[in-house]
Batch of 3 targets.
Target 1
Amino acid sequence: MSTVVETDVLIVGSGPAGASAALALSTYGVPNIVVTRYASLADTPRAHITNQRTMEVLRDLGVEQEVVAQATPQHLMGNTTFCTSLAGEELGRVRSWGNDPLAQAEHELASPTRMCDMPQHLMEPVLVNAAVARGTRLRFETEYLSHAQDADGVTATVRDRLRGDTYEIRAKYLIGADGGRSRVATDAGLPMGGQMGVAGSINIVFEADLAKYTAHRPATLYWVLAPGATVGGIGAGLVRCVRPWTEWLIVWGYDVTAGAPDLTTAYAESVVRGLVGDDDIPVTIKSSSAWTVNEMYAESYANGRVFCAGDAVHRHPPSNGLGSNTSIQDAYNLAWKLGLVLDGTAHPRLLDSYTAERAPIGRQVVTRANRSIRETAPVFEALDGLSPQTPEQLWANIAARKDTTEAAGKQRAELREAIAFKAYEFNAHGVDLNQRYTSGAIVPDGTPDPGFTRDPELHHQPSSRPGARLPHAWITSGSRTLSTLDTVGRGRFTLLTGIGGEAWVRAAEAQEVEIATVVIGPGQEYEDPYGDWARLSEISDAGALLVRPDGFVAFRHASAAPDAGERLADALRTILGHA
Ligand code: FDA
């Protein structure tokens, strides 16, 4: 071991968490190195649902349009279908992912972005290419082995898998974004709750032109109740669209106590045939892999100078499509904090807010995703489809719902209700957007928690209370229409005020830390022609919101303040950990 490479931040892993950490850090001008074990980025589709909050993050990081150009658009995602096979009987549908007309309006009101379906093997190159173009140094086939930290930094030992030798990388901070079997999290001793290997599952990626069974009911997910579909896995057989309507990924369960089946091409083909239900369609198997459903989350995301993000600290099934989203949002939360600590603007205490803010989200996501699996069972219970039986019995049970009897009517009603209840998996807009932080990097304004007037998992409720994400409203600047969210971000704080808020603007300009100022009102740089901002801001024109680089409100004052300078300086001292 002769060489020691130096950097500010070493990132282990190039998945959604590591790649977006690198992208954000490089965007903020923080030197960073990514090491990743394999010779390429993800070679299978994996995570795909990309929610509005993630799209907002990508918008701020300048890659939103690239993702939109490659992703399957929202309007092709929405007819989640329950069926006996793609060619078989349809049991019902859920208008999903913001495609229900009412949900669509809520999505439009909530964010300037749209949800989309961006498979991980397409997402990772977008993130990594942009990160490298902005300065990230990336090393493929480089495996993290261990680390040791001291008062000034972290020394990681890595192995060059091509040459076989090891070397050291000295960094001021280490980010473990090394996935569900994170060695960094283990080495850092992060306490984990929950359980790995709750159920067994197989992913089969294949090509087949299935347009005749899907184009008339476009969806990202087709759920199949076939014999064996409720064994292990994620609650049913799943045919997931990777590229409409020719590339697919099947998720099929196995009994985890019996171990994964032998993943031969013949086995994969037999599963595909069973779920597609049409033997005449040519099928090309591209890959098969086994994985397990996990229900684990870390209580702490950091130990000293080591921080973990993504699956390293929250491991859960793909239900609700939260894996990659949560990973990207972890990284976005952490990156600006590291940037400000590294350039001396903030005290390292600011970094404590990472666990305080993200660990509760990780726990919520793990719990929700696993609960969604269990909530699929009532769909099949309504069809007597869960008890052990022959295929013939299953088909007879399913056919029974067409009878004219009272029992059949009851069965139809139960089925409709159970399918509609799956909105908690396929339309959980609140889970996507209602994140509220409590930490040292948020200054309470003394107002009581407003709670939620509707189901907080299903519905987004905007708030400008410190700890909430800045509400989105369309405003204008000259001939340009933009979101309030477009005025914040880019690695710096932003102060929003209105007519009468001059003292806040002067106070912001007087601070040592860079604060962009946004004045919204008639005759100002930004105007509020629809009155949306006045309705959503929850402050008077002369009040102020201080928004963090990640778009979360850190400080709020409802009205003008003669001592604006002092108040803002106090707030910043707290937020930046100097208090
Ligand atoms: P991720 O696992 O993506 O990345 C970890 C990175 O760390 C990789 O680049 C890896 O090479 C690297 N690494 C690991 N150990 C290392 C070491 N010692 N040294 C250097 N590098 C190291 N989700 C979903 O919503 N729908 C789905 O269908 C699927 N399917 C799926 C299939 C398979 C096979 C996997 C592995 C995962 C899924 N997921 C999924 C989960 C989803 O992919 C996951 O939530 C996100 O990728 C998490 O992103 P991370 O960046 O945290 O980890």
Target 2
Amino acid sequence: TTELMWFRRDLRTHDLPALVTAADADRLACVFVLDPHLLDHERVSPARKRYLRQALVDLDNRLGDLGGQLMVVLGDPRHVVPALAKDLEVDAVHVTADHTPFAVARDDAVEKALADDGRTLERHQGVSIAPPGSVRTGSDSVYKVFTPFHRTWTQRDHGEPLTPPAALPRAPDGVGRIDTVAPTEVPQLDVRGPDEAWPDGGEGPARERLDDWLDGPVDDYDDRRDVLGVPGTSRLSPDLHMGCLSAREAWTRLDRRNPGQDTYATELAWRDFYLHVMAEWPDTARGAFREEYRDLPWHDDDDAFEAWAEGQTGFPIVDAAMRQLSTMGWMHNRARMIVASFLCKDLLVDWRRGEAHFMANLVDGDTCSNNGGWQWAAGTGTDAQQFIRIFNPTTQGTRFDPDGVYVRRWVPELADLPNNRLHEPWRLSEEDQEALGVIIGEDYPAPIVDHAEARQRAMDWWSQAT
Ligand code: FAD
């Protein structure tokens, strides 16, 4: 047989069922299709484009080591893949199933076009640890609540990770005719990205990061994961999002008798949970999971949104986080929860604006996890938690950044403030402001809301709106 491996967000050779199956063919071509629609889409951040470029180069090298090669083709995959399959006289196209509504619609269209021509699209598992839809309640439905999902998920046998094929079959004769591009020469991928470079993309660097993480730091995950000022989390989210790492492999390598490693396993389960939710209820990509919360009268406050996005709210922990995002293209999980709560509750701005801003900036922007995180924060999602759980930015700051390392790093104009005022600089006396050279309202913004009032306003708004 002649077959085609169509890579998408599975840019790796380890633990990739689609590639292992495709490698049994007599002839095999490997392709990645760069869709101009996505390259120019505002939801695709510069950081993700840069990561993608590096990951494609890395994948081509790895396939090269196995005797293969990656063709990168520009165009709409709905046309490119069937045309390529025809041109190369391919029998079957292998993919790793992706479960966002966009990907499902695209793959359905490709599958139909291939079928019209007598070819097949074979979807394999490989984005999540447990295939979406497979972890089910006793009454055979998908879980809406994480805790019972996790209980069942943990008891499942997720299988062992697969090693890469020893070698790849030779390419079909026609590949020389295919019009390909070098990822390094695609202008849309040649982006500076955020100011602070994120570590290199690709399976090679990602595997080194995973090894380093499992070789010690993961053991302290329980103690350090919520401390904003230390690198206490894995920072593997972009590697997992782009599929340069297999989540299943990461999970299998954990020793869950160790509390840090066990907590880490739970975070990987959250990722699977949100994939399950999106696959089962695709409408959740567009609006609130709970129907009764789809038309809430959010405030269309552009000024407040801009202040939030630019890290100019006057709340140091919120501003530090938003500046970390614009500088690094990444944000700590605790910080994501704080800024999301602030936008939806203190400012009453529609969570979907925050969700879109995250997608436009995050290196790990992921339709499922991002949507799940935002709906969790807004109180519109699967969890039974209440809207009225409103984070107090000052308390969150003093609790999770007690020494002010995080705020001082990202809001340097506050670096000289004493710890007891760092998270509420508006309480500095005029004399102290003068002495420290930080005039609130000039050198650093005065808070754009009074949190206590904003909290009350949010609760009133919620009880009227629902
Ligand atoms: P670690 O703490 O090391 O966690 C390990 C891995 O588990 C992560 O790499 C990630 O793949 C997964 N994970 C951890 N927490 C979650 C979670 N709550 N939900 C789903 N997966 C999780 N994660 C994304 O990958 N992409 C997003 O676009 C995204 N948007 C978010 C938006 C909001 C409002 C919130 C509250 C969370 C969001 N998350 C998102 C989840 C989480 O914040 C990030 O996965 C995490 O901060 C990535 O850093 P890390 O790799 O060091 O995480």
Target 3
Amino acid sequence: WPEGAITKVLEKSSLHPKPAGLVLQYGTAGFRTNAKQLDHIMFRMGLLATLRSRKTKATIGVMVTASHNPEEDNGVKLIDPMGEMLTATWEDFATQLANTEQKELLAALKDIINKEAINMKLEAEVFVGKDTRSSSASLSQAVLDGVHALGGQSKDYGLVTTPQLHYMVCCQNSHGQYGEATVEGYCSKLSQAFLALSKNASNRTDDQKHLFVDGANGIGAPKLREVESHLKKQLQISIFNDGSRGKLNHQCGADFVKVQQKPPTGVEISPGDRCCSFDGDADRIVYYYTDSRGFFHLLDGDKIATLISTFLKELLVQAGLDLKIAVVQTAYANGSSTRYLEDTMKVIVRCTKTGVKHLHHAAQEFDIGVYFEANGHGTVLFSKTAEEKVQLLAKSTNINDERKRAALLLQNTVNVINQVSDRRVIETTDAERRAVSPAGLQEAIDGLVKKYKQARSFVRPSGTEDVVRVYAEADSQESADALAHEVSLAVHRLAGGVGAEPKPL
Ligand code: G16
């Protein structure tokens, strides 16, 4: 142990005491609940990140955010060395540490140190970031206290988006190869690649260069303003819901738009305007527009994945590169998007459980793994081999113009993408598409689905909110709504629903 660390842990932990008996679960993206319950969790996640840094001999990230959840919640996302989410084996350590009673904390730490054979003499470094919630300042201080108590070094990035913190961690651990670990470095790397790519679409009209951005009243808005000057008017941005008036994620943001299938409040959109929405920590994006009849069209994660994989596949063919490309989705992906990708695009499609960490791992199995959750969370991963092949081709002098152009576009695409990730009575299997408990629920859902054309439905407990999510799809909006209602009634009846029965949509 670094000198004085044991005393410091004891001393500092008493300033961040755990309420006796409180038990919290590591959810889809880390711990997430009302901010009032999180002070000890943040301190302990500071401790855990410091251990993880010693174990991996690399910098670890801790982002204080509750993303799409309401303002009064908060949470923590832990970032592993290459910018990915904390490895699943350490989620158990996180849960143990979070739920250990105050007087057992030292023993719990020692247990992890022994199990993972961590050399406590090594240096440790943790990067910390936070979103704009009012509770984030004190909670990120609690994380820093945890890091310092165990003798770790820290760098506090203050207000940043989640993807920015992932980027910083990756830059630091790749010794600058991925980019410079500053907000300026982030803005300049991504915008340079964007400008190079947009030269390929030089005939865009002013309208096509204009994007309306809903900042969800969160961190995305101020951070986008910092990128704006780098974009040299190739993208003109009008930001609304920028946090100057409205409430975080309230009637706005990616989750609202996706779930409600309607534009956020706070903006008047005219037919054809190009719009998008971030969520509270700007790691989700969905696009939308209204047509001349006023109908709303959503371009969600399914559509984004389809467009990106189509674009990449065309470039691979033009470049003459033989790389294996796949799209990873979750059960929430609309059935038509899966059919289109498999049958028309002839792309491999994989389905995983909800949570970027699951999609990310599946995407790593391919040369190019495009992964998107329908809710707008995702990215594209290029394997080392894929990156090298693209770079080699882009440099080569003895290829024709078409191949060269495609290789350069692929190279800029690699750079523009930041590659970096009670309701529990319901248990699920098959990538969460079927419920195994409570008894009879899946049979009931199967029976209801049969009543509708082209229908699918599944239910699962959320890992970020205290709700059961019900998904339904069918050949018309009315049928999908009716199916969703019938399935929610079945959940209410068979899984011990609380309060009044769900109403029709
Ligand atoms: C987090 C996860 C996402 C997941 C979402 C909802 O997103 O990172 O992968 O889709 O929660 O999860 P659940 O359905 O379990 O509540 P975010 O943007 O809230 O961090």
